[in-house]
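Researcher: Quick test of sequence recovery. Tokens follow.
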């Protein structure tokens, strides 16, 4: 049943400070809406339980891409189309470009925002694996101040994050440290476009000869939240990938990933399938090195 829009109210404050003041005055009352690509679907089928919305889509303070010597800083209101058109992101963070291109249709990419993709907190979201592999940090803002943390600490569980009711995600910062890393990202879904992930893996690795000097892995649909596979990373540090040792390294990687993988059965896939395919993707990346 479609929602009765007369039961909803929408505030559109003129500035970021005004939006934060509204959230601070009545914490928990308002749900932010930017592109609306998730919330409007819920509204259309009568499942939008939040009845007070605060629009942040028009706030220019949240829509930017800034580059300095150390990092690329992306405002939470930056759209996927903005990301896809950024030459700086394409040069330094190609996995983020690829994941942005997976997110729905062109219309969705014109409306949907990076911040919305993160704060919606779906374990199957497209951009988190790349951001996790790149070691991104997030900046959270409220009327009382700001705080910054590793993005890997942002998600607490299924649809749960560290965001307080009076906070907004302000921006995401990604280091520019990966020019000498091998980079890989794969998404497995029911079809080639406009598909929700059954499993996705982003991986980057730095080699010293035939030894893995550093490796970082981010995954979607592997647990109840987007996750960085730190135990698997640890198991692969200083492992050899030359012909005589590659098979042993692959076996160690698959065994370590099995200890971290906690997928579920749902309408799109089974836990067994997800775990097996995640291990296959990791092996594909390692053998590509």
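Model:
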């Amino acid at each position: 049943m479609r929602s009765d829009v007369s039961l909803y109210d929408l505030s559109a404050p003129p500035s970021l400070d005004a939006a934060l003041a509204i959230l601070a005055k009545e914490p928990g009352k308002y749900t932010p809406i930017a592109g609306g690509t998730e919330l409007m679907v819920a509204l259309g089928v009568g499942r939008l339980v939040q009845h007070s919305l605060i629009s942040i889509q028009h706030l220019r303070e949240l829509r930017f891409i800034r580059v300095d010597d150390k990092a690329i800083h992306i405002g939470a209101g930056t759209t996927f189309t903005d990301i896809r058109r950024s030459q700086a992101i394409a040069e330094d963070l190609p996995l983020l470009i690829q994941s942005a291109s997976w997110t729905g249709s062109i219309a969705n990419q014109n409306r949907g925002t990076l911040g919305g993709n993160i704060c919606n907190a779906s374990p199957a979201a497209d951009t988190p694996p790349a951001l996790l592999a790149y070691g991104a940090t997030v900046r959270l803002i409220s009327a009382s101040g700001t705080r910054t943390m590793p993005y890997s600490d942002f998600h607490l569980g299924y649809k749960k994050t560290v965001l307080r009711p009076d906070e907004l995600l302000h921006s995401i910062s990604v280091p520019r440290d990966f020019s000498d890393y091998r980079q890989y990202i794969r998404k497995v879904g029911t079809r080639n476009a406009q598909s929700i992930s059954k499993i996705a893996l982003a991986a980057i690795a730095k080699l010293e000869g035939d030894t893995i000097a550093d490796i970082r892995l981010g995954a979607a649909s592997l647990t109840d939240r987007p996750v960085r596979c730190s135990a698997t990373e640890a198991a692969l540090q200083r492992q050899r990938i030359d012909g005589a040792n590659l098979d042993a390294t692959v076996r160690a990687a698959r065994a370590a990933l099995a200890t971290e993988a906690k997928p579920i059965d749902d309408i799109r896939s089974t836990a067994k399938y997800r775990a097996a395919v995640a291990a296959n993707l990791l092996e594909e990346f390692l053998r590509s090195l």
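The chain has three domains: 5-55, 60-175, 182-288.
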